[in-house]
Recover the amino acids of this structure.
């Protein structure tokens, strides 16, 4: 691996993360907030997203290490720093990448109380947990006799899907709005492994120098769709084809609500991606069970019965530690996300400065808090956010966030949403405190989009 | 206002930078790691050096295939291979052990310096090192031939329970760098 690629990987790892849309959530100036809460009290009449540009999101994060920890220009030998990282990270430390691109999106007010939104987006999501023992085994080799290396830290999940969705936000009364969204998933690829068991260790041998042990192995890797072996011949159209053919389909549901206690205070909540993908095409799952131990090969020196020692050893290994390749369909589950917020608006109402708000909230200022939880293979991903919103004139709305999450206790974010005539442009980014030195950031998310919003009522 | 937003957005993107780091340190990455593995072992007694008619067979040979050097990891990062032997010879004769590396067409790639085991030697340890300069010569090894050559001496008597035993292992030294191989 050359240095450019490795450097890119590290930069990439800190620039991307986490599926925490704390800036966009409940930012109802922006149509995409309906994706995060179908029960948002969306106030516009129609919108259409500019294809591909309406919702670009890329987020990434890593716990336990930053690029700065390794590449700091501090005079320390980089090999010492790598060693610190390898032995400092734990099985619970994770690398997460989430990327989403809205292909098409739109929304239309059906009547005074109902707003329909729909679209198609592509999403890539990956979580990879640091396999501490396996990393140490590769790093220090097999020379530590009797040290046991566990396989139970090997956990990852990655998938790319297309999501065709439609949702309705329904205002029950002036205080209560609920919403739901149906999603049809189309998996491009899926790969996952977890709950693996097994140990490898080396002891002093009896008949030979060393006795190598691989015991109680029970591991599973499931893949479906486009897998790594195909990569050499792949083109972007192959991914698009996978999305539109629904070869590995799935179904999902989002639900949400907004409850207004009064004009100035409301709470919201949503639960997203309750569903699964049924992987039935291009499935290759690998199950490994058993154990094996050896002290090497005993030579016979028998010219009358020459042995193919290696083949015999391989056969014995495969019998005792069989790897079954299964093509049976399996379900993969989307990480379910929970969002909740409370928001208090204040400041000069619109009628005092002749401002007709684009959003449902006419006040200049708002403060509040948000919670986000997503289930991940090993442990929940969470974020608690405090925010302050401020609009400037009739075209610019801003949101400043302070977030505590798995990655940081000091994540500062900003969201900007502008509306020039019918054109809505938004931009959101977090971990701004590391903007001058992203190398120190554990995570950063970035979202932007371009929509056309029309407030004219339907005839 | 439109211009202000545009400028602000661009500034946010452009000001996102890294400082205080030196990515050229990637060139300095050198991870040294050692892996050991048992190879072959054997326990030979007098009967192994006698044929069915009781005639002495002073040369024993066996061929085995162990992919010690297989794979790109060894091709790229292997810098030394130490072949370890522990030998016990309770016979009253000298015994020589030869170890030869062959490619897939049985062409000789490397002949390890023979190990000469003296009579009545117990748990004698020997090491044969394939140096970094010699690694390219053995990296395509597919097979090994081991020959046991017993010297002349007192006639072999199975009832004496004499033996020639050997253990062997390899210690592979890797140096992982970020250089393009």
């Amino acid at each position: 691996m050359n240095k450019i690629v490795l450097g890119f990987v590290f930069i990439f790892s800190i620039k991307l993360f986490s599926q925490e849309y704390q800036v966009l959530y409940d930012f109802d100036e922006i149509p995409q907030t309906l994706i995060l809460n179908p029960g948002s009290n969306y106030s516009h009449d129609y919108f259409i997203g500019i294809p591909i540009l309406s919702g670009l999101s890329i987020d990434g994060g890593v716990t336990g290490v930053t690029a700065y920890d390794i590449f700091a220009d501090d005079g320390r030998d980089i090999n010492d720093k790598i060693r610190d990282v390898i032995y400092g990270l734990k099985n619970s430390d994770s690398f997460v990448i989430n990327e989403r691109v809205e292909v098409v999106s739109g929304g239309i007010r059906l009547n005074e109380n109902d707003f329909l939104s729909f679209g198609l987006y592509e999403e890539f999501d990956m979580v990879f947990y640091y396999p501490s023992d396996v990393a140490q085994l590769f790093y220090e080799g097999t020379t530590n006799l009797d040290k046991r290396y566990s396989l139970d830290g090997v956990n990852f999940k990655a998938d790319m899907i297309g999501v065709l969705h439609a949702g309705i936000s329904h205002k029950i009364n002036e205080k209560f709005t609920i919403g739901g969204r149906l999603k049809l998933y189309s998996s491009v690829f899926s790969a996952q492994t977890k709950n693996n068991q097994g140990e490898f260790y080396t002891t002093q041998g009896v008949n030979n120098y060393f006795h190598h042990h691989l015991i109680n192995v029970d591991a599973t890797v499931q893949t479906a769709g486009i897998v790594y072996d195909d990569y050499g011949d792949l083109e972007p159209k192959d991914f698009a084809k996978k999305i539109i053919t629904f070869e590995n389909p799935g179904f999902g549901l989002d639900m949400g609500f907004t409850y207004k206690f009064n004009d100035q205070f409301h709470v919201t909540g949503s639960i997203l991606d309750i569903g699964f993908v049924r992987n039935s095409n291009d499935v290759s799952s690998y199950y490994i069970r058993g154990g094996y131990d050896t002290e090497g090969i005993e030579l016979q020196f028998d010219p009358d019965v020459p042995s193919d020692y290696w083949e015999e050893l391989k056969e014995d290994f495969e019998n005792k530690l069989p790897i079954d390749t299964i093509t049976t369909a399996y379900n993969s589950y989307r990480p379910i996300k929970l969002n909740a917020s409370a928001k208090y608006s204040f400041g000069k109402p619109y009628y005092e400065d002749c401002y007709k708000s684009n959003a449902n909230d006419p006040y200049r200022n708002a403060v509040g808090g948000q919670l986000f939880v997503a289930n991940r293979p090993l442990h929940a991903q969470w974020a608690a956010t405090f925010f302050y919103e401020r609009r400037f004139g009739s075209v610019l709305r801003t949101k400043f966030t302070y977030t505590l999450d798995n990655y940081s206790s000091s994540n500062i974010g900003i969201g900007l949403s502008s509306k020039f005539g019918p054109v809505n442009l938004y931009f959101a980014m977090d971990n701004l405190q590391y903007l001058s030195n992203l190398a120190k950031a554990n995570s950063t998310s970035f979202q932007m989009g371009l929509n056309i919003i029309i407030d004219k009522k339907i005839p | 206002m439109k211009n202000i937003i545009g400028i602000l957005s661009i500034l946010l993107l452009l000001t996102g930078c890294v400082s205080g780091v030196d990515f050229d340190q990637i060139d300095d990455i050198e991870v040294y790691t050692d892996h050991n593995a048992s190879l072959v072992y054997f326990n030979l007694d007098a009967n192994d050096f006698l044929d069915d008619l009781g005639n002495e067979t002073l040369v024993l040979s066996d061929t085995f295939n162990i992919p010690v050097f297989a794979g790109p990891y060894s091709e790229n990062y292997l810098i030394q291979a130490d072949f370890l032997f522990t030998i016990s010879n309770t016979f009253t004769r000298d015994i020589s052990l030869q170890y030869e590396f062959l490619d897939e067409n049985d062409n000789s790639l490397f002949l390890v310096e023979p190990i000469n085991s003296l009579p009545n030697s117990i748990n004698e340890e020997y090491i044969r090192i394939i140096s970094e300069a010699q690694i390219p010569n053995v990296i395509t090894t597919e097979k090994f031939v081991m020959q046991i050559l017993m010297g002349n001496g007192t006639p072999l008597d199975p009832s004496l329970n004499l033996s020639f035993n050997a253990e062997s292992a390899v210690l592979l030294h890797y140096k992982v760098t970020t250089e393009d191989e």
Observations:
- Residues 3-15 of chain A form the longest helix (13 residues).
- Chain A is about 15% helix and 50% strand.
- Residues 3-454 of chain A form a domain with the Porin fold (CATH 2.40.160).
- Chain A touches chain B through 63 residues (CB under 8 Å).
